[in-house]
């Protein structure tokens, strides 16, 4: 396609409808319209101009509002489908893997659950097609914005004060007629008072206000694109840390994915509302539901090892700070945040046993097994000792005669021991779990009797580092600015020209809020005695309505 | 009187005021037989003043309850829904001041009444905050959301007025069906309120034991005669109704029972109204809307979205994400409530693109406004009560 030269001499990009400079209609179709199509200032949008190559076709597809809205609606429906049954991440299974999750959906939700899982809806939001859909939305945002922004910017930058008469009388707000000699001057004065930017050229005047509001939609789309870009960045390594740390009271542990940092748990507290004193007013509510949690808190000390120390070395670490991690009050350091997410109360810490003679019930001494770091052997003196042959922190039963542990957490500790006493120097083998003793190699003379257990609480902490947050925040901010810019402001323009015969021609346009535009014009007209204006859109509608009514009457008569 | 009692009395006053104002607005827009509408301005003004009195009382409830509990009363189903009723009326007051439209009051106030009545069916005693809610973000996030939703609901109110005027109730059409369906669903809410109030006043209670979805024995109390039974239920209370059938473990049959009773009572009520009035409910409103300017209703519909959409973005997405990052360590987790907030947002984004880009104004816009309200109500009611998630506080 060729560039289009207007009669005024301005060369417009191919596909232009209204000359960027003087506003003449450049197509026959446009010339026959009663009102000018001012949506994008009659500019040449790429999507409306080219449709030959495959790139043109792709561009045109994504620049369409219809396609954009369709993508939004598809996303909306997809998102809704994902809430019919819980997503896999919220499903509670003892051991997490694909099989157990599949089984969970089938067991709990029956046929529907099976189909839901089969279709991949249990993990819908990270499915490829959902991500592709979001990607298509991003492309649509970019293409549709560029398709409109670039020509609009060109056109508003190139606009001339003096517009062709055919442009003027095709504007919705239009006036012509005689006016006093000083009308132009007074109009200029009043328009300036109303904060319009006024430009003069020969016999013409252009008053403009709020052009920046035209960029609103593009600004908010930029905000969304920045946001989506931030979300995409999280998939890159290093931008995003998400780790879980279970830490017991009294323990010091390295913080996962935070090299050089260590955390010591001093104490875990869980409080519930008592319904007494200050909380008496809540008594009824507490009684109804049983108990209401008031606080989950882990008191910690944060340490850091100096840069030069070896990885994992904890001897020379320095205290950084103390903090009480509560819900809503994470520990923050060096871009990391540590959250109180979970807890286990009363985990077994140590168990104390007596080595006793079964017959006499006489004790040969007692010893304590640390359930996290058990020793190999406990010497009770006098040729008496207990060897720990095997330790199964979370005993789950025997497999091929071997004791098994389900997890490394001491929920149900089992001990395989060999007991040596002066009477039984070869040792007796016994397997002990809570409330039960098995003697696999025959009847023993001695046994271990359980005395006491020490417990402690365990805090479930989540460690996060998210370097994309500032990007996401920026995106959100720009989006809000763009929305406000586009929605709460509008772009108003007036063109006034003095004809050779002394009469004035006036045209007005706004991208929205015609009521506001008219209010401005009323003030200017009153002050400068401009000719009365008409709203041509309303005139057309009135005529159409009249025609309709006449037609109806005609129908009734005939 | 304790502060909490003063608070609930103020809520009663607000409820009464809205009820009276509804009828005065109705009278104002219906006018007299001669068809002169001089009274509209005067009666409209009186109705508006009553509405403002109700709103101030409602706001008084909010403030006194805040003082009494020590935290913003936005923390459970009762409190949030009551506040939603308040912002709905607040939104109406703003738009009335801008556009002087009594007919909008006639539609919005009954909806607000329904919402408050619905809210009061939930436990309303003051309750303490769980750790996740103990932060100023509760006030910031939830109040922005509730204001935004109140204003967006006005868009639906204006849309409904538009449809009541424009849809021909004498000719069979899809529009007539769906408009009447909206009316029917509003009557169902009344059905729910009547059924719950009746059984709670008569003190109905019936205990069942059942096997829950994790395979454990559990008990549940029905507050309405059990129509549907829990999984492998056994009745624990003598002389109460036995369920007609049993449901799988994933279904909360107690809630299903409540829904069935509401539908049952609501449907009877709906047909009673239809038999007495001898026409569809939407048609009953016809004489009230004959004087309405469609262009103005379309404008209000759009204006409400223009105000509500940015507020909703701020409250339900941006503030929500900030808080989620602080409390739950991630700004987004695809929790059902989050997803439905996103769905609401996407829906209004589509509304704006269709309106500004595709010229969907007038009737199409009115339908979209009503659908938007339906999505908001779904997020409030269904997502809280049916779909379990992190936001299920009630």
Automatic annotation (TrEMBL), chain A:
Protein origin, superkingdom: Bacteria
Cell compartments where the protein resides: Membrane
Name the UniProt record assigns to this protein: Cytochrome c biogenesis protein ResB
InterPro entries in alphabetical order: Cyt_c_bgen_Ccs1/CcsB/ResB, ResB-like_domain
Ranges for domain ResB-like: 65-522
Alphabetized UniProt keyword annotations: Cytochrome c-type biogenesis, Membrane, Transmembrane, Transmembrane helix
Transmembrane segment boundaries: 67-85, 128-150, 218-240, 469-489
Membrane-topology annotation of the record: Multi-pass membrane protein
Broad class of where this protein is predominantly found: membrane
UniProtKB/TrEMBL annotation, chain B:
InterPro entries given in the database record: Cyt_c_assembly (IPR002541), Cyt_c_biogenesis_CcsA (IPR017562), Cyt_c_biogenesis_CcsA/CcmC (IPR045062)
Locations listed in the record: Membrane
Domain of life: Bacteria
Topological category with respect to the lipid bilayer: Multi-pass membrane protein
Ranges where the Cytochrome c assembly protein domain occurs: 264-391
Pfam families: Cytochrom_C_asm
Keyword entries, A-Z: Cytochrome c-type biogenesis, Membrane, Transmembrane, Transmembrane helix
Keyword Transferase tagged: no
TM stretches of this protein: 6-25, 46-68, 80-98, 103-122, 142-165, 177-199, 259-277, 304-326, 338-354, 366-390
NCBIfam families in the cross-refs: cytochr_II_ccsB
Protein name from the UniProt record: C-type cytochrome biogenesis protein CcsB
Taxonomic lineage from the root: Bacteria, Bacillati, Bacillota, Bacilli, Bacillales
């Amino acid at each position: 396609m060729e560039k289009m030269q207007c009669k005024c001499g301005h060369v417009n990009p191919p596909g232009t409808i209204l000359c960027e400079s003087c506003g003449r209609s450049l197509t026959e179709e446009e010339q026959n319209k009663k009102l000018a199509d001012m949506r994008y200032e009659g500019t040449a949008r790429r999507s409306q101009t080219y449709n030959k190559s495959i790139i043109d076709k792709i561009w045109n597809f994504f620049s369409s509002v219809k396609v954009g809205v369709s993508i939004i609606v598809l996303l909306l429906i997809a998102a809704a489908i994902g809430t019919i049954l819980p997503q896999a991440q919220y499903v509670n299974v003892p051991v997490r893997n694909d099989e157990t999750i599949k089984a969970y959906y089938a067991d709990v939700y029956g046929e529907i659950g099976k189909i839901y899982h089969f279709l991949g809806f249990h993990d819908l939001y990270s499915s490829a097609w959902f991500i592709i859909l979001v990607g298509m939305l991003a492309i649509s945002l970019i293409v549709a914005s560029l398709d409109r922004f670039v020509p609009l910017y060109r056109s508003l930058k190139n606009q001339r004060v003096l517009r062709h008469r055919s442009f003027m009388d095709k504007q919705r707000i239009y006036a012509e007629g005689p006016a006093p000699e000083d009308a132009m001057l007074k109009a200029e004065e009043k328009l300036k008072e109303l904060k319009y930017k006024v430009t003069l050229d020969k016999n013409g005047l252009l008053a403009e206000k709020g052009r920046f509001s035209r960029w609103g939609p593009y600004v908010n789309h930029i905000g969304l694109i920045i946001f989506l870009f931030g979300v995409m960045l999280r998939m890159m390594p290093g931008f995003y840390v998400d780790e879980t740390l279970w830490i017991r009271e009294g323990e010091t542990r390295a913080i996962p994915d935070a090299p050089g940092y260590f955390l010591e748990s001093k104490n875990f507290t869980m409080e519930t509302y008592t319904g007494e004193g200050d909380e008496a007013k809540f008594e009824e509510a507490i009684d109804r539901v049983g108990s209401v949690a008031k606080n989950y808190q882990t008191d910690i000390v944060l340490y850091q090892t100096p840069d030069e120390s070896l990885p994992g070395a904890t001897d020379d670490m320095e205290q950084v700070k103390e903090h009480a991690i509560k819900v809503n009050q994470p520990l923050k350091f060096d871009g990391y945040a540590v959250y109180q997410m979970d807890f286990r109360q009363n985990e077994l810490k140590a168990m104390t046993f007596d080595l006793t003679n079964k017959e006499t019930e006489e004790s040969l001494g007692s010893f304590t097994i640390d359930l996290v770091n058990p020793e190999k052997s406990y010497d009770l003196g006098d040729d008496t000792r207990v060897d720990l042959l095997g330790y199964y922190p979370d005993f789950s039963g025997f497999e091929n005669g071997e004791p098994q542990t389900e997890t490394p957490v001491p929920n149900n500790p089992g001990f395989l021991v060999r007991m040596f006493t002066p009477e039984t120097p070869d040792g007796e083998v016994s397997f002990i779990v809570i409330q039960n003793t098995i003697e696999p190699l025959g009847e023993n003379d001695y046994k271990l009797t359980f005395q006491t257990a020490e417990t402690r609480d365990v805090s479930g902490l989540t460690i996060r580092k998210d370097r994309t947050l500032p990007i996401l925040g920026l995106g959100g901010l720009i989006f809000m600015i763009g929305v406000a810019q586009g929605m709460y402001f509008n772009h108003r323009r007036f063109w006034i020209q003095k004809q050779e015969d002394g009469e004035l021609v006036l045209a007005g346009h706004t991208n929205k809020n015609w009521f506001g535009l008219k209010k401005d014009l009323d003030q200017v007209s009153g002050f400068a005695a401009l000719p009365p204006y008409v709203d041509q859109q309303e005139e057309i509608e009135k005529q159409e309505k009249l025609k309709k009514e006449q037609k109806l009457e005609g129908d009734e008569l005939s | 009187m304790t502060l909490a009692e003063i608070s609930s009395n103020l809520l009663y006053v607000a409820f009464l005021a809205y009820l009276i104002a509804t009828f005065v607005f109705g009278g104002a827009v219906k006018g007299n037989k001669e068809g002169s509408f001089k009274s509209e301005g005067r009666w409209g003004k009186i109705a508006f003043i009553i509405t403002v009195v109700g709103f101030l009382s409602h706001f008084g409830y909010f403030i006194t309850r805040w003082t009494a509990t020590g935290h913003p009363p936005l923390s459970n189903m009762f409190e949030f829904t009551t506040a939603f009723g308040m912002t709905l009326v607040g939104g109406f007051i703003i738009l009335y001041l801008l556009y002087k439209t009594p007919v909008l009051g006639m539609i919005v106030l009954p909806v607000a009444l329904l919402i408050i009545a619905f809210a009061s069916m939930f436990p309303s005693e003051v309750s303490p905050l769980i750790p996740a809610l103990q932060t100023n973000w509760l006030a910031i996030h939830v109040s922005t959301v509730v204001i935004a939703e109140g204003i967006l609901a006005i868009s639906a109110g204006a849309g409904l007025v538009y449809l009541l005027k424009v849809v021909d109730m004498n000719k069979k059409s899809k529009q007539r069906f769906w408009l009447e369906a909206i009316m029917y669903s509003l009557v169902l809410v009344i059905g729910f309120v009547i059924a719950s109030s009746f059984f709670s006043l008569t003190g109905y209670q019936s205990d069942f034991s059942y096997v829950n979805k994790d395979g454990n024995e559990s008990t549940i109390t029905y507050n309405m005669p059990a129509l549907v039974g829990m999984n492998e239920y056994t009745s624990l209370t003598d002389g109460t109704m036995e369920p007609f059938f049993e449901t799988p473990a994933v279904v909360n049959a107690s809630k299903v029972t409540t829904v069935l009773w509401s539908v049952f009572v609501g449907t009877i009520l709906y047909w009673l109204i239809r038999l007495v009035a001898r026409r569809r409910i939407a048609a009953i409103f016809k004489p009230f809307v004959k004087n309405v300017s469609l262009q103005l209703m379309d404008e209000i519909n759009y204006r409400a979205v223009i105000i509500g959409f940015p507020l909703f973005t701020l409250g339900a997405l941006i503030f929500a994400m900030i808080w989620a990052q602080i409390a739950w360590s991630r700004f987004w987790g695809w929790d059902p409530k989050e997803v439905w907030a996103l769905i609401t947002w996407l829906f209004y984004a589509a509304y704006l693109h269709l309106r500004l880009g595709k010229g969907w104004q007038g009737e199409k816009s009115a339908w979209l406004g009503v659908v938007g309200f339906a999505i908001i109500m779904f997020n409030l009611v269904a997502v809280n009560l049916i779909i379990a998630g992190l936001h299920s506080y009630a």
